[in-house]
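Model it.
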Amino acid sequence: MPVRRHCAVFEQMVEEVARNASVVAQNTAAAKKSASDAGTSAREAGNPCD
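Modeled.
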């Protein structure tokens, strides 16, 4: 495999990893917001055991 072709393949792999990392970051942020919203809802509902 010529060096330039090898570099192009490597660059594509790096770009894909970067895109995947971005998606993971977005999903993590959404999950944190969802967990926070759930905690807020639970606090607003109160403890039925009181």
